[in-house]
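Why should sequence recovery work at all? Because a backbone constrains its sequence more than one might expect. Tight turns favour small or flexible residues, buried strands favour hydrophobic ones, and helices have their own preferences. The token representation captures these environments compactly. In the example below, the structure is given first.
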């Protein structure tokens, strides 16, 4: 789906949506679709949630923007909430996940220079995804994303994901490391879930070598994995820096970089900024999102629904030879097949279901956290039919 006046940056599907309600969307022909993608892990409250609609309307009637030259009450309220939920110390607000990771990278470089490093270097992972700005695509472990945009930003060393020994080897060979940047679960990389103690071991290495531990929780944060933040599944994996976006605004653009300990006071006035970041509207929406999460116990609901879907998939696909693995945590679920399954996206669309395929052979499901049991069963049924027919 392409028009001459839009740059060709997406291979869009042949559909356009006009309205949504809860876990459903309707297209221009009034056909209804069950959304198992949530705008790529964004609309955790589904579509047109009343609390968010009210927050947008009420704030739009009062104040949209003033800039960060002045105090912003909604921003302070949101910072307090995020720090209370995460046990982090402070927050920088921006407009997207890539911007949140840019801030994290800048914090790491400041930290390295303050330690006297001449080339502050960040350890990043193969098959990772951190964004499409020059710095974040350089950190990303995907040549397809980087191709054509060289020269890349320097200062990154790449190691295999879920391989703690590889990080130890880098520590032995380089004295310029200042940080490790890692996703708790690799979403774009195929819903790769590391060993249970992987993040704990990274935390130990960072403490041992005086590095910053930086977690990209843009996709996993705000309840997606069955905890407010994925690192909370571990007893000893609290990061020094954490980036958030996606579900924080449920569709209203907002990103956040949280810091604690030795990373909390690296930025001084003038070191970083954002014209729109943390404006009254985006923060009002994020505050409404967090309020709904608390009132409706959505994190607990996500745990239950995620386990329900995993159990159903494992039962339904138990004897399906083309299925290599079924994995998930909360409501981020990946089904890895032994063949390219990108065609499933179009086939599911025809059946009124929105899904995604990553790494060519992994069906990625990111349904709204508000889904009920019936909707979960429908997603499982449709996906299993596609797999068995392949």
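From this structural description, the recovered sequence reads:
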């Amino acid at each position: 789906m392409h028009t001459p006046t839009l740059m060709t940056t997406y291979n869009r599907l042949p559909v356009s949506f006009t309205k949504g309600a809860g876990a459903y969307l309707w297209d221009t022909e009034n056909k209804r679709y069950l959304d198992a993608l949530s705008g790529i892990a964004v609309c955790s409250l589904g579509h047109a949630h009343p609390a968010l609609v009210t927050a947008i309307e009420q704030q739009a009637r009062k104040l949209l923007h003033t800039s960060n030259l002045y105090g912003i009450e909604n921003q302070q309220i949101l910072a307090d909430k995020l720090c209370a939920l995460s046990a982090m110390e402070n927050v920088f607000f921006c407009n997207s996940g890539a911007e949140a990771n840019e801030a994290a990278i800048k914090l790491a470089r400041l930290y390295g220079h303050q330690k006297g490093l001449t080339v502050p270097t960040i350890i990043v992972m193969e098959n990772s995804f951190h964004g499409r700005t020059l710095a974040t695509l350089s950190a990303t472990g995907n040549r397809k994303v980087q191709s054509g945009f060289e020269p890349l930003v320097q200062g990154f060393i790449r190691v295999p994901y879920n391989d703690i020994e590889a990080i130890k080897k880098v520590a032995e060979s380089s004295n310029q490391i200042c940080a490790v940047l890692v996703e708790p679960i690799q979403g774009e990389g195929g819903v790769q879930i590391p060993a249970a103690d992987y993040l704990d071991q990274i935390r130990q290495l960072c403490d041992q070598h005086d590095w910053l531990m930086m977690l990209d929780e843009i996709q996993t944060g705000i309840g997606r994995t069955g905890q407010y933040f994925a690192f909370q599944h571990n007893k000893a994996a609290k990061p020094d820096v954490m980036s958030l976006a996606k579900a924080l605004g449920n569709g209203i653009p907002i990103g956040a970089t949280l810091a604690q300990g030795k990373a909390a006071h690296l930025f001084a006035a003038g070191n970083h900024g954002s014209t729109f970041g943390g404006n009254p509207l985006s923060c009002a929406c994020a505050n409404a999102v967090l309020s709904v999460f608390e009132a409706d116990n959505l994190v607990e609901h996500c745990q239950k629904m995620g386990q329900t879907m995993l159990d159903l998939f494992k039962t339904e696909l138990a004897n399906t030879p083309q299925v290599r693995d079924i994995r998930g945590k909360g409501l981020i679920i990946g089904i890895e097949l032994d063949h390219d399954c990108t065609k499933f996206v179009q086939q599911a669309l025809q059946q009124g279901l929105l899904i995604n395929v990553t790494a060519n052979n992994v069906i990625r499901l990111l349904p709204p956290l508000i889904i009920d049991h019936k909707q979960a069963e429908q997603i499982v049924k449709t996906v299993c039919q596609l797999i068995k027919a392949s």
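A few observations help interpret the result. Residues 137 and 145 are 7 Å apart (CA to CA).
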